[in-house]
Amino acid sequence: MTITLTREEAQQVLDALECMNEGAFNAEIKLLRARLSAPEPEPVAWMHSLTGGGWQVVPEKLYPTDQPLYTAPPQRERVQFPTMLRKMWSGSEVQAWLDENLNKEKNHG
Fold first, then answer.
1. Across-strand partners of 64?
2. If DSSP codes are grouped into helix, strand and coil, which group holds residue 47?
3. For 82-105, how does the pLDDT look when each residue is reduced to its tens digit (9 = 90+)?
4. Could you tell me if 5 and 13 are in contact, meaning their C-beta atoms sit under 8 angstroms apart?
5. What is the Cα Rg of the chain in Å?
6. Pairing state between β 45-49 and 55-58
7. Quick check: pTM over 0.85?
8. Contacts of 26 (CB under 8 A, 6+ apart)
9. Strand locations in 1-109, DSSP E?
10. Distance between CA atoms of 45 and 66, rounded to whole angstroms?
11. Which of 16-25, 59-68, 88-97 has the lowest mean pLDDT?
């Protein structure tokens, strides 16, 4: 089952969790609050489902079932070199490779 909440409803749930847990899950609550406070991206177009199957890209939302399309790729956390592998490889060399090849958008954005 999936439950969808508005930002306001999610804030209310986090407020209730903070009151009930007396300090438990502080890191998780802080992370969720940060994500909720981030501005919502604006869709650049919409995918409209066609009768009989298929999709059509349209410039504005026509029906509630239309799916938004965004230009910004999803954000991901910076990849860190696992400390357990440092005995096998130089951590700084591998981290430099990760930064150059996998963390490009974090370094340039």
1. none
2. strand
3. 565 555 566 677 677 777 777 665
4. yes
5. 21
6. antiparallel
7. no
8. none
9. 45-49, 55-58, 67-69
10. 10
11. 88-97
